[in-house]
Amino acid sequence: MGVFLNIILFGTEVTTKTLLANYHLDLFQTEVEETLKRIQSHKGVIGTMVVNAEGIPIRTTLDNSTTVQYAGLLHQLTMKAKSTVRDIDPQNDLTFLRIRSKKHEIMVAPDKEYLLIVIQNPCE
Amino acid sequence: MESMGHPEIFPLVLTTKTQEIFNCRVNEDFTGEQPYKLLKKEDIIEDLHNRAAVSDFYPVKKIVQEYPGSELLLVYDKDFKYGLNFYLIGTEEGKESYLNASEAPEEPEEHKEHVIEDIYVYKPPVSKPWVSLGSEKEIEEQSVKESTKQITYMISRKRSAFGAPIKFSDHNASSIKDAYIECTAYPDKNFTVKQLEKDVGMQVVPKVNDISTQTKWTYPKNASTQYYPREFSEEEKETLGQSKSLTDFLNNMSVSVEIALQQNEIMNAFIDDWKCLAEEEGTFGDKTDTHLKEYQSFTDLHNLTEKTITCVSWHPTINGLIAVSVAVRLTFEDRVHSSGKLLLQPSLILFWSFSDPIHPQLMLESPDDIFCFEFCPSDPNIIAGGCINGQIVLWDITAHADRIENIKTGVSRSKKATLKPMFLLEPESNKEAMYIRHCAVSSIENGHKKVITDIHWLSDTFEINRMGSVFENRSEICCQLVTCSADCTICFWDIRPQKILTPQPTEKKKEESIEIPYDIPSTFLHLDLSWKPLTKIRLSKGETSLEHCPTKISLSEEHLLYKSQEKVLVQGKATKVGEINPYQNLEAGLANPLKPIEDFSTKFFTGTEEGEVIYTDWKMERDPDTGRLMAKKPVNLYTVHDGAVHTIQRSPFYKDIILTIGGWNVAIWKEDVVIGPLLQSCCAPKRYTSGHWSLTRPGVFYVGREDGYIDIWDLLEKTHEPAQSQNICVTMITYIKPWTLSARQQFIAIADYYGTLHILEIPWTLSHPSTNEIASVNYYFEREVKHLEYVEQRKKIREQEKQEMDLETEKKKAKTYHKSKEQLEAELKMDYDNYLELEKTILINLGLIKVSEKDIL
């Protein structure tokens, strides 16, 4: 509380309010949010989403309909890619999937339980 | 005839001899009505005696002899009903019945005529005794009668077994001896006949099988599935988000993801460098050819007065059609002197087509010289023009649209000779027919008072109201105009009928007396002579009563009009296909309540006569003192040019880059950069009189000079001077307008002061942008902006530095002052001491002070 009092003394009302808000956010912001924010802040990143093993989105920065579409389609593609890799060599496994199109690049990082999807516009 | 059931009828054949004897010849004695004759029995018996077996009556001899009566009835059987041509009735009863029957039909025939009028009286049938006609014999023959008596068997059980249950059982008859007697059949040789010959017929017939099956018919049926994706609820998302597994996963995966992201940021791995290096190979024409080539030129040869071209506009939809407004080449004083003569000559807008360089295709007539005009972007048949007297003139050439639509560019002349050369026809009659009169003019009292210098149609995406607030435009047509004039006002006009708040009956009467010629379309009749502007903005110069005189305006939405050629085509086609032309039904759009558009930039650029570029707002605000609507003060004012600004234009590629040309130099501005122009050229040797951006190359613009030269500037080549200069004509260039006809051809229309319109073809190098030219020019502008900002910052830094330097010098001065103060004191003290000593020595010398021995020592 002592810290807050000091802030009030030196800053204007507006700045104190924002400082307080940031402090509250820091309390609840988890590592998950931090990591996602970091990824999202890269240059050219259009959207980031985390999807569970069944293709149901957990966290996303895009709107709902787009997220659902991407999640469903990419989940199936990842399963297919994974099974392809394992069919060729059963000891191999899929680590990363990058789909480059004319407009964007879609990056999929698969895991046993989750899927991390990032869409980036690589051109300047 | 017993076999036939009529035993009394005996058919007979009577030969002609017999007929003569008995007077019963066929046609003479027997008639249709009396085909019978009564013959005497004695005669027949006599004949029988005479002719015995020869007599025809021989077969019936017995019957005749037994006949009770004396007369027998012989009937002529014309129809051979009983087999022969005559028959004899053998009984008295038969005779009677026949005779009665034959008589009965005669009676009703006689009574027929009398009975018709009588009412039929119902007579119930009376039972009569049955008369046998021989039918019972037939019945008797057909009926079945038992011929033998039936055998009766009675089988009974033993008395003791009465009432006891009965037991029946089966036995095979052949197993019990003598249970039955049979007469077995045996083949008897006597009766077997061996068939030695057989007559058999054969026919070859294909084996045909008729088989039928039943199949299940499947018919297509529409089926649909509706589904929604599985989603987590907010709480589940939260819990999952907090879970450790997700944190671990992200920590592991984010590393590889970030590597991938950074790879992309560093470089694009899929660029084909060789491809990007080479310029496009598919060029038409020589690459080194950068000259504008003369294509065609148009001059109006019919009008004798010296005219100049004030404004040029290509037709938005029809290729090869260009419209030109001409004005008389006189100064203001000369105009006033010869105003009487000028009234007789019509002021025209001429439509030239590439296919006919001598005769204009259409001539639009206006009340006075037009100084600027524009085709309506949503309907190219509507043209709005600004007059020298401050009126706005509207034309509607929908009726003549078919005349100009079928014009083709190029050398081939159209075979439709609708316009004959002028010298073949009488000049008077033809001239009147070809002029198209204007539809409507604005009100003289309420409009502009001086020449209208610029007119623009507002884009069809928005419309404004009296306050200047922007609303959505529901009618999807361009219905508002903006004009600026030399009387220092900018007016907004609406072409839709306004609701009249105060009725003005006297004025109405005056207007009604004006007859409207029959061939004028009534599209804008509601506006004619009573058209008032929506709002008027007065450009005043701050507190002084002086005002700015605007020459050109540039609104933010204009750049879309360059690229909307396809859009206009589509819209034009839509109105052709069967819909009502929206301009015929302008009132429809007024009733809808409009939605205001937020975040709409209502600022625009104006150039003035003094060479200033003003960036101001058209939204009106209420003056707190007087309560009237006032225009806002300009946001920015720049004095850059030395003469009147005649061109303010937005670049077709960048929405916020504006080109202004006036006086002797050129300036390029960016809308939000308030520091100054991005580029300001140094003064040219000759005055610039017109200019235009290139439509296809973002860094190129054309500037016309007063000596007939055109300067082509290329920002990627040189920015301090024009890249090229070419001579077009001998006199001042008044208007430049480029136009893209097709992907390969681009023309530029240059109008000069002497009234000639030159059409030149732009070479490939000037019309075709190089790869990434938009990006390069954009980069150039950004650099210029940064340069300006740097200059600003440097200014500030310099000021700061200057301030610091000043401070230092002052400090230095201050320090020396301090130093000298102490020194001065010391010096003063020394001086004082010296003075004291001097005083002492002088006094001693004078002998006023006795030098004591102490001092000497």
TrEMBL record, chain A:
PANTHER family linked: DYNEIN LIGHT CHAIN ROADBLOCK
Entry keyword Transport: yes
Gene Ontology cellular component list: dynein complex; microtubule
Keywords: Cytoplasm, Cytoskeleton, Dynein, Microtubule, Motor protein, Transport
Chief location category: cytoplasm
Pfam families on file: Robl_LC7
Known function: Acts as one of several non-catalytic accessory components of the cytoplasmic dynein 1 complex that are thought to be involved in linking dynein to cargos and to adapter proteins that regulate dynein function. Cytoplasmic dynein 1 acts as a motor for the intracellular retrograde motility of vesicles and organelles along microtubules.
Domain spans labelled Roadblock/LAMTOR2: 32-120
Family: Belongs to the GAMAD family.
Species for this entry: Trichechus manatus latirostris (Florida manatee)
Domain of life according to the entry: Eukaryota
Intracellular or extracellular location(s): Cytoplasm, Cytoskeleton
UniProt-recorded name of the protein: Dynein light chain roadblock-type 2 isoform X1
UniProt key word Repeat: no
UniProtKB/TrEMBL annotation, chain B:
Presence of the UniProt keyword Repeat in the record: yes
InterPro entries given in the database record: Dynein_IC (IPR050687), WD40/YVTN_repeat-like_dom_sf (IPR015943), WD40_repeat_dom_sf (IPR036322), WD40_rpt (IPR001680)
Localization, UniProt: Cytoplasm
Organism domain of life: Eukaryota
Swiss-Prot/TrEMBL keywords: Coiled coil, Cytoplasm, Repeat, WD repeat
GO biological process terms, semicolon-separated: cilium movement involved in cell motility; inner dynein arm assembly
Main localization of the protein described in the UniProt heading: cytoplasm
A Gene Ontology cellular-component term: inner dynein arm
Coiled coil: 790-841
Keyword Cytoplasm: yes
SMART domains: WD40
MF terms (GO), sorted A to Z: dynein heavy chain binding; dynein light chain binding
Function description: Acts as a negative regulator of cell migration, invasion, and metastasis downstream of p53/TP53, through inhibition of Arp2/3 complex-mediated actin polymerization. Via its association with the multisubunit axonemal dynein complex, is potentially involved in the regulation of cilia function. May play a role in osteogenesis of dental tissue-derived mesenchymal stem cells.
PANTHER family linked: DYNEIN AXONEMAL INTERMEDIATE CHAIN 3, DYNEIN INTERMEDIATE CHAIN
Quaternary organization: Interacts with ACTR2; this interaction reduces binding of the Arp2/3 complex to the VCA domain of nucleation promoting factors. Part of the multisubunit axonemal dynein complex formed at least of two heavy chains and a number of intermediate and light chains. Found in a associated with the catalytic heavy chain DNAH2, the intermediate chain DNAI4, and the light chain DYNLT1.
Protein name: Dynein axonemal intermediate chain 3
Naturally occurring in which organism (per UniProt): Trichechus manatus latirostris
Classification of source organism: Eukaryota, Metazoa, Chordata, Craniata, Vertebrata
